[in-house]
Design goal:
alpha+beta, 3-stranded antiparallel sheet, two-stranded antiparallel sheet, 3 helices, 21% helix, elongated
Length: 149
């Protein structure tokens, strides 16, 4: 019976952890601007896109959470002039080394929504680099960490 209760607790514990999936609510457009529209000052937006999601949509993979594994994934997103992420254009630029983190980052990216970038007050499409950080709650020491010995 106890194992069954633990299975029920894991998803409940992961709900607050989803917030830990990404540590910043705004992202830099400048790094990705060279992919769409060049890198000159005239092609840069006056206003960068801003994430609108109340909660980040990245979910910590249960198996990696139970193993106390942390990781980072960097995605390249294409945000259209309506603020939607074009899923077919999302790419992993820097993988985490764990396919579960990479898959969770790609799945969450489809659920992102942005206030679009603007140039001269007009919404424009942009590409940007978007880091996703999978972190354990504060105070949790990952297995194998020097503090746990």
């Amino acid at each position: 019976m106890r194992a069954g209760r633990m299975e029920l607790l894991v998803p409940i514990l992961l709900i607050p952890l989803s917030v830990l999936g990404c540590s910043e609510r705004t992202r830099t457009v400048r790094q990705g601007a060279a992919w769409f529209g060049g890198s000159s000052a005239s092609s840069m937006p006056d206003e960068r896109p801003r994430m609108l999601n109340a909660e980040v949509p990245f979910r910590y993979p249960v198996s990696l959470y139970l193993q106390q594994v942390q990781g980072n994934v960097t995605l390249r997103l294409f945000v259209d002039a309506d603020g939607r992420v074009v899923s077919d254009s999302t790419r992993i630029v820097e993988p985490s080394g764990h396919s579960e983190f990479d898959a969770a980052a790609l799945a969450g990216a489809r659920l992102l929504s942005f206030r679009p970038a603007r140039r001269g007050g007009t919404p424009i499409p942009v590409a940007l680099l978007y880091p996703v950080h999978f972190r354990l709650p504060p105070g949790t020491v990952p297995a194998g960490d020097s503090l746990s010995q």
